[in-house]
Amino acid sequence: MEIYLLTPPKGTPSIELLKRTKGMSLTEKTRQELTAVLVGKRRSLWSKFLFAGPAIIASIAYVDPGNYATNIQAGAGYGYKLLWVVLLANLIAMLFQGLSARLGIVTGKNLAELCRITFPFHIVIFMWFASELAAMATDLAEFLGGAIGISLLLNIPILQAMAMVGIITYLILTFDRFGFRPTELIIAFMVIIITLCFLTELLIVPVSWKSVFDNVFIPTVPDLDALTIVVGIIGATIMPHAIYLHSDLSIDRAIVRNEDHRKRLLKFTNIEVVLALGVAGFVNIAMVILAAGAFHSDFSYVADIESAYHLLTPLLGGAAAAVFLSSLITSGVSSSVVGTMAGQMIMQGFLEYKIPIWIRRLVTMIPAFVIVVFGVNATQALVLSQVVLSITLPVPMIALIFFVTRKSIMNNYAITPFVGIWAILGTGIVLGLNFVLLADVFGVPVPLYFV
Questions:
Q1: What is the pLDDT of residues 184-219, one digit of tens each?
Q2: Which residues pair with 3 in a beta bridge?
Q3: Distance CA 166, CA 146 (A)
Q4: Alpha helix (H) ranges present in 174-304?
């Protein structure tokens, strides 16, 4: 394989072809190949796949066990009626992940760092606290979900399964010392497994495709209980820690020497965001379809992952249950890895302080152990964690809009007013849903209009 290295230019950049790559790490090889594509020395279709990575890692946050919990409740309780929420949430996620990547590529800093540099200290502390709360809620869902899957698979106590998930995720996190590429490949492999699992489920479960297409595009909120699930779906789909992390993952992946290279990098990044988040959106829609097709008619009361798993065998056969469990375990492990990565970045960005990865992994496991020890329903805890995520979500969304709309920060790469309006509208939808949910929690009457 030939590798191109862009050398520091005097005027126009020059390219040196490196014939020998022995001793070069996988990450270094990827970085040089990416540079070669940007300068036009690599034009094959395969070379474009080298840009895949940051959005794939971010996308795993959109198919974590929290999504399983909320999507099972949505499909079992309301059939296909809440599919529109999944589509809406995924479109908003695409927009904000794209903006996050754009911020990192243009400024060379992640979102948390820019917040620390720009905002007053007391606001930074508040944002850090809210972001850490979101990270803890995220890891609760991811960690518990993976443990539930292993517990059901091996028929072992949930506490033993949680310990196994902790060890597995830590081992995967150690690959980070070899650079960004090994971790990206591991996560990409897991995304493929999850996607194939749900493709298989759609071939097994009975589906009313007419109802699917009708409800994907027609907003309906049947009752206030459904509203809690709607907010949970938003919180499970648009992830605060993924918005922070994507800006960091997009920095320094390739050597950018001029604005043409930067524009080309942004173009490839946007394509990756659409494709990666499109796959995540398909998985989420497939989850709701699976629950609607399997449970809604006769088992609408199904509201937890364990019950769903145990019912799949008599309803659809052992293969459907095994595939479901495989996807859940893969989702829990991979998303827990990504959540821990994001937690590290958030602390370092806001506070300029970094703790050893094993301490971060241990601390974020504690809430999950507390919940299990005190006998709290695991799936209900997953759903409530997604509501917490949705409530903390406006913090990074508003901060991101603040930065990407300013030419003083983004120069000519500041987003257009048209894109800015859509970003503000997406944030407004999240804020509006949160307001309605909190009003319901505190007993304030909220009128619902059915479409």
A1: 899 999 999 999 998 988 888 888 888 899 898 888
A2: 18
A3: 10
A4: 180-204, 209-216, 224-237, 240-249, 259-295
Closest residue by Cα to residue 306 from 105, 430, 161 = 161
Higher pLDDT among residues 195 and 240, named by residue? 195
Q: CB 352: neighbour CB atoms within 10 A?
A: 10
- Helices of type H across 252-317: 259-295, 305-316
152 contacts 309 by C-beta, under 8 angstroms: yes
Q: What is the mean pLDDT of residues 274-303?
A: 87
Average pLDDT, the chain: 81
In a 10 Å sphere around its CB, with 0-12 CB exposed, 13-18 middle and 19+ buried, how is residue 451 labelled? exposed
Residue 13, classed as helix, strand or coil, is strand
3-state secondary structure of 302: coil
E-strand spans in 11-83? 12-18
CA–CA–CA angle 41, 44, 47 (5° rounding): 80
Tell me, what's the pLDDT at 404? 95
Residue pair 21/29 in contact by the 8 Å Cβ criterion: yes
H or E element at residue 9: strand 3-10
The secondary structure of 426-446 as a DSSP string is HHHHHHHHHHHHHHHHTT---
Please write down the long-range contacts of 308-314, taking CB distance under 8 Å and 24 or more positions apart.
Answer: 308/72, 308/76, 309/152
pTM for the whole structure? 0.84
Q: Please tell me what DSSP assigns to residue 206.
A: -
* The one-letter amino acid at 25: S
List the structure tokens of 141: 């869902």
Q: How many CA atoms lie within 13 A of 411 on its CB side?
A: 8
183 has pLDDT over 90: no
Provide the pLDDT confidence category of residue 113 given band limits of 50, 70 and 90.
very high
**Is 69 in contact with 382 (CB distance < 8 Å)?**
yes
Q: What is the C-alpha to C-alpha distance for residues 332 and 339, in angstroms, rounded to an integer?
A: 10
- Find the length of the chain: 451
Interhelix angle for 305-316 vs 65-78, to 10°? 60
State the amino acid at position 78 in one-letter form: Y
Phi-psi bin for 270: left (phi > 0), alpha (psi -120 to 50), beta? alpha
Tokens of 359: 């301490």
Closest CA to 138 of 392, 356, 416: 392
CA-CA distance, 350 to 125, in Å (whole number)? 8
Neighbour count for residue 216 (Cβ, 10 Å)? 16
8-state DSSP, 51: G
Residue 241 CA to residue 349 CA, distance in Å, equals 12
